[in-house]
Amino acid sequence: MTMELKRYQQAALDALSRFLTVSGAKGPAVAFAEEIARQEEEARIEGRRLEPRRYDAPHAEMAEMAEMPYVCLRLPTGGGKTLLAAEAIRLGAEYLRKPHPVVLWMVTSDAIKRQTVDALKDRAHPYRARLDAVTGDRTRVFDIEEFETLRPSEIGRFTCVIVATIQSFRVTDTTQRKVYAYQEEFEPHFSGLPAEGMEVVAAADAAREPLLAGREGTVKFSFANLMYHHRPLMIVDEAHNAVTGLTRQIQARLRPSAIIEFTATPRGVSNVLFSVTAGALKDEEMIKLPIRVRPHDGWEEAVTGTVATRNTLEEKAKRDVEFLRPIALYQAQAKNGHPTAEELRGYLIEEKAIPPAWIKVATGENRELDGVNLRDPNEPTRHVITVQALREGWDCPSAYVLCATQKVASATSVEQLLGRVLRMPYAKRRRDAALNMAYAHVAEPSFAEVAASLRDKLIDMGFTDEEVRQSLRPAAVELDAQGQLFDPDPVAPKPVLTFEIPDSEEARIELAGLAEAGAEFIRTDAGTLKVGVKGAVTDAVASTIERHTPEAERPALRAEIGRHEAKVQAALSPAEKGAVIEVPFLMVEMDGDLLQADTDLIMERVEWSILNHPAQITEAEMSFRRAENVIEIDIEGEKLVYSQTQTTQLPLAGLADPDDATLEASLVQWLDRQCRAEDIPPTDLSAWLSRIVASLVSDRGIAARTLIDWQYPLATRIRAKIAEIRTEVRQQAHQIALFDDKAALGTDPSCVARFDAESYANVPTTPTGAFRLRRHLLGPDRVPLLDGDLGGEEFQCAWALDSLEQVDLWVRNLPKHPASFWLPRVQGRFFPDFVARLTDGRLFVVEYKGEHLATAQDAREKDLLGRLWAERTGNLFLTVRRMQHGVDPQGQMLNAVLAP
Known about the structure:
alpha/beta, Rossmann fold, 7-stranded parallel sheet, 26 helices, 35% helix
């Protein structure tokens, strides 16, 4: 069973596929520029900003490698880089036009190498399952230490994956590495191969090895030379721990055909083809965010806070549907530091009364986690102590709380340990919001210092600056320069109630348990706890503070709480006061069922068959030119030209040439694997592909052997044709379901986009400066990012909407957010820019289009969909232009809402 790819993973692979396809025609530099331009245009339409990126040729001084594709896919920690690396082998094979290439899978350490080899050799592991799916169950996996077992008969007939560390090849003197050494058993590999460019046996080699006497100047039968000949597809995994990419000297020795790098932190902006944000991982329920951070004066307090947080989370987890036992990770110090792993273990047992069976120590000397299944309900582990043994090769999504026993800035292992607590258990959101966050207790007294230190750690893990700001949340209150409590969150700060109570361990533990209710505290030199409560004071918080307040001071406390509640109410946004905007989605009736008008759902009800469409590849779609022994293929409007010599492979000795019928049958089987799709029955696809091959051979007179030579371009053209057919079917289904005279459209009260206080709780916001947006549902400071600055056209449209007296409330409708309102396009969804509720109760949906986009095809499609929704729901939709017949945006909107 293969793992289903997440949306961001598929998007990364799509970008890689487009890049490699165009690279074969125009070279990697042009392909890179076109892909980045495509992403920038998509980001501009969606109101996102992308960092600038450039392409640097990996080895420009070597003519044959100057055009070698070399790109990096950036995914934050927890993004599934290894899974994508396995899938990228299929795309690499298509680019190389080799069904089974040699793959050199480079990692940065022996620990990761062992982990990767174990996963890829285990046929039950999702990574191996993914590999077998893309190779047709023809996979061979080798540890670099066992490369001698690689046989000539396996190369070309199987996808041979050799997993190695970068250090195995990075050496100036090649005599110091086994991969460059002479291997007598490799002689069959080199039979008939040209010697040009390969390392030869030197006099020093012959002096060391008597077997090499007299072979000076001949090709060395080495693993490196074997790679040089076969030009492996190179996968570089987790390269941020080493110098990004490989040295030019190593490239020259191994001569890879393409390098695809997967990393959380590429060095600079060169060759970064696709970048996944931490926000995308959160949206796909892959990681826990935000991170609640509590500073402490010393490691003992940090441990105490960690135990309390973990205990609270376990109680919450007991109410979850699936079993989940939160685990705390403690970062101990080495033997010359303090506290050591043994000191931590003793403190947990003696001071915190933790049963010894609940504690595991995983250091270089102690391997108590080996063989332990932390998902087993009968396994008692709740606390794991380590120094840096968990940095690589260990993963436990049930880890929730990190305890750093020294300053973060000086703890080299904190970054890796933090990555462990970010992974979401079983990759799904929990009903209790507390179980969707990560927690860190740090032996450092200042939140500002902790946040500054963690900022760099998170950026090293693949977060952006904006995501760090949105992801770090204090779990304790700080003091400003005047010694006053304040809320460090720069977005819509809430009023803070402050009060002092006597310091006691009981009070600290109880208040720690109320952190999610907004209670926070710090210890003062006067022996008191300065307590802060952000926002509304719950009954539980009020009763706890009052219980620890001296009797004589309780009336003053109650009065202060009353004044605080008045401030809270005055600062609340309309949404926080309970205001809601609900926008009905468009519904369509099909086969007696009412379903959301989503084109994917509509397609599930449409019966279509690939057999009803022409099984032909025309001359215009794919032309074979025999002159000069080249082929031309038209893919997505690009004329790609390939030299036949690029696909020449050595014949296997002893095998008879198959006849044409056998070649055709094998080609159909191979195409079936390459072109299979979930919405096409395998029997239909196979029959349709058989017709295509027969048509090419019989009608166009192309020999079966020629088709075999060009099977990858053929598969690419066929997949494109299937996509064209599917798009045609979607367009017809979309048109009939929504715009046909007999279309049954309506709404369902239970199917609405609901905008409330939680809708966009963690999205980046637009700094509004002196502008005060009076009618925004989430408050003037909670407007999700708009395209451009305060002078931008989209912000000016928002400002005009906010100024209309006929508007009761409005909200920015964020593109692609799960809480947003959308309408169904033929491909994808349309997210209008703004949603408003008018004072007369009607809804007013607004899409802004700049002058250069106003007449574009997609603008017309969106306008048609919006007007259809308005007609069927009795509401209003308007596409606003920068200027329409001399009327500005405010006038256009006013005319629309006042129209009879």
